[in-house]
Design brief:
- With about 375 residues, the chain is α+β, with helices and mostly antiparallel strands.
- The chain is built from 14 helices and 14 strands.
- β2 and β3 form a beta hairpin.
- α13 packs across α14.
- The relative contact order is 0.16.
Length: about 375
């Protein structure tokens, strides 16, 4: 099997698939890893796929020039965001300035990338997504819009931002603005599908899937919790870093230098008042003059931030999430057909017994 990058290190961005003029590449996904596989009978050895790959050739890393924490001054945006609403507020201002936003959205049972042209559609893209999304299919459209003179704001994970920057390199880049999100790592979409099926939930017909509301973590489908009274095991696995694909544990982008114009995340352990923390506080790292423009035009409340404190509270600004000792066991048992609940009980029996007891008591009273 010939792959675009080192086996099992693929981020699943799909840029190589879209860049291949011979249609010689397919993305193979399983719960452990992604791989971009090359059909050697079709390949003409042009090398374009390998140059675009964000694992082989990361976009230029830049040191942040400014750091901020704060929130959107639009109360509805802040209330409907996982933290302070920076991403939605910046995107809203960008659209109002005749720009187009390309970002992740849940639609037709999956998380893909769509173009947003009006501000009322932005709220459907808000919130954290604890699953691997696919920008496949958006790269050509991004480039087409740039060629047509449109301003495009791309919001994604750092590997996805790197992929889109590689794809359009040397072509109308002045109109491309980028925001990357501080990323812990992401599970395969197959894993999410597997879990909800085990719970008897069909997300194919769902209109909304959410993973977090401020500091309350839990998988919800159409506003209903998948697990009542206690944290669901999809979320537990995610928060324990046990369910990510292989590439995430050696991510090149989990560092202080970034590839985007702006990096956004949560301002964990903020020194701002606790009542503001309850409403959500965002963290922003600005790398470029373009990033400064985005921040200046958005309706934001900006505060200075203790940089070292922010880094300690977001370890992905220092290193990738560490691979837990039981992660390979978790994958093997999933492949053996065991359920999420069975596996998490094997891995952390005391924690799971406490959850069972809590569930029984809540139902009783």
């Amino acid at each position: 099997m010939k792959t675009v990058c080192v086996k099992d290190m693929c981020a699943g961005c799909g840029a190589c698939v879209e860049s291949c003029s011979q249609r010689a590449i397919c993305l193979k996904e399983d719960i452990q890893a992604y791989n971009a596989v090359i059909d050697e009978d079709k390949c003409i050895a042009c090398g374009r796929c390998q140059k675009i790959c964000p694992k082989n050739h990361p976009a230029e890393f830049r040191t942040p020039i400014e750091w901020y924490q704060g929130w959107s001054l639009d109360e509805d945006i802040r209330a409907n965001s996982s933290s302070g609403g920076f991403a939605s507020a910046i995107a809203k201002a960008f659209i109002e300035d005749d720009g187009v936003v390309c970002t992740c959205k849940f639609s037709k049972g999956g998380f893909g990338f769509q173009f947003i042209y009006n501000t009322k559609d932005l709220m459907t893209t808000a919130g954290s997504k604890y699953v691997k999304s696919s920008p496949k299919g958006c790269y050509r459209e991004v480039l087409s819009k740039l060629k047509s003179g449109h301003k495009v704001l791309f919001i994604g994970l750092p590997c996805q931002v790197s992929a889109v920057l590689n794809y359009v390199r040397g072509n109308w880049e002045e109109n491309l603005y980028t925001i990357d999100l501080i990323c812990h790592g992401t599970p395969s979409a197959q894993l999410l599908d597997m879990y909800v099926q085990q719970k008897g939930v069909d997300i194919r017909g769902a209109t909304k899937v959410s993973f977090r509301n401020k500091t309350n973590y839990g998988l919800q489908v159409d506003h209903s919790s998948v697990e009542d009274y206690c944290q669901d095991n999809y979320t537990t696995a995610f928060l324990s870093s046990i369910s990510y694909t292989e590439n995430c544990y050696c991510c090149d982008y989990a560092q202080r230098k970034r590839v985007s114009d702006i990096t956004l995340g949560d301002s964990w352990d903020s020194d701002l008042p606790s009542e503001e923390a309850k409403k959500g506080i965002s963290l922003a790292l600005c790398q470029t003059p373009k990033g400064k423009i985005l921040l200046e035009k958005a309706d934001l409340c900006l505060h200075p931030v203790d940089i070292q404190r922010a880094i300690v509270a977001n370890h992905q600004l220092m290193h990738p999430s560490e691979k837990p000792p039981k992660r390979d066991f978790f994958i093997r048992k999933i492949e053996d057909g065991k359920s999420f609940d069975q596996i998490m009980f094997m891995i952390e029996p005391r924690r799971e017994l406490k959850k069972i007891a809590k569930r029984i008591l809540k139902r009783k009273y």
